[in-house]
Amino acid sequence: MKRILTLIFFLGCVQTFAQSQYEKDKIKELELARQMDRTRKITIQIDSAIRLSDEGHYEAADLKFRSILKSIKSVPSDLTYHFGKNSFYLGKYRQSVDWLNKYIQLKGTQGQYSEQAIEWLSKAEAELMKEREKESKHAAQVLSGDYYIDCGPTGKVVCPTCKGSAVVVKKNYFGEVYKTCPSCHKLGYLTCDEYNKLLKGKLVTSD
Ligand SMILES: [Zn+2]
Hints:
CATH superfamily of the largest domain: Tetratricopeptide repeat domain
Strand order of the largest sheet: 1-4
Largest sheet: 2 strands, antiparallel
Bound molecules: zinc ion
Shape: elongated
Structural class: mainly alpha
Strand content: 5-15%
């Protein structure tokens, strides 16, 4: 009797074990199928973004690439090349250099797009350099607003806002309205301090 009970217990265990194993396999299978489906959908999206880029729709391609990047956990290496190249066409050179470098780091010289990636990278770097030069030239410009202007012995300057007339013309829905000049308080001229403040956009005006 005891042996039979043991046997029944044993068989029960085997069955439970087999069932849970079966369930685990089933879950794994479903997970795998779900993953493959995701990969397939992302591949389709990547292909469509690349096509948009190839056809010259760089903005649309950029939007699509970005939405793909948001939805995936790991970025396929080919995507780094295509996104980098598309960024060049949009004039986003820093972004372009960044992603093309990624591709080269990942694939070295042996990747499907290595040669093109190196070419695009050097173009993007050249453009980026030009931009930086422009920026530094811009920064080096000397502007009058940074200095205090000497207004001469009178210490007065004809008000630039109203050209000395003390009134300004404003347009509204009903036509033109004459208003007292907000800069010079009906005087038609500014003191040198006021003039310098006006140049710097710091003159407090009454409206
Ligand atoms: Zn004025």
